[in-house]
Amino acid sequence: MKSELNEDVLLAHHTKEAGLSLRMVENEALYQTRMYDTLSQAWHGWSRIFSGSLRSTLKLSVTAFAILFFSLLPLLCLTAAIGMRWETTETQWNFAVGMWSAVVLLSYFPNWKFYSFLPIKNRWSLAYPLGALFTVMFLSFALLKHWGFASTL
Q1: Alpha-carbon distance 56 to 59, whole Å?
Q2: Can you give the pTM of this predicted structure?
Q3: SS3 assignment for 93-137
Q4: For 55, left (φ over 0), alpha (ψ -120 to 50), or beta?
Q5: For residue 93, what pLDDT is reported?
């Protein structure tokens, strides 16, 4: 099992092949675990997970692009618009900041709403851009692995 990329899926497959049933259950307060002890382990582990789950350069690339385009680009454009204050007229600046603010709010509102269904505070959704950035980095490393420039195992 240790050498498998998606050991949980393989374990479930073997269980079903043996004629046993599977069920998903809540485990709140049953036990606590941590996936990785170090940042290096997390980096290699998540890159391995994405590499094993998406399995192709095209899927890894499309996923990274989608996260960049839909999650990070609006925030970067808003930041750029705010930074252009002295390069534009007040009307242009107000329009650019207003439009990008609306795009950011519309793109992050679903996250805020989604977090209300989780047993954590909604304010943690504000950390989503950081999570998106790390995810793009993990996907990029997985792409490097697919191209033979890195190892995630």
Answers
A1: 5
A2: 0.76
A3: HHHHHHHHHHHHHHHHHHHHHHHCCCCCCHHHHHHHHHHHHHHHH
A4: left
A5: 95
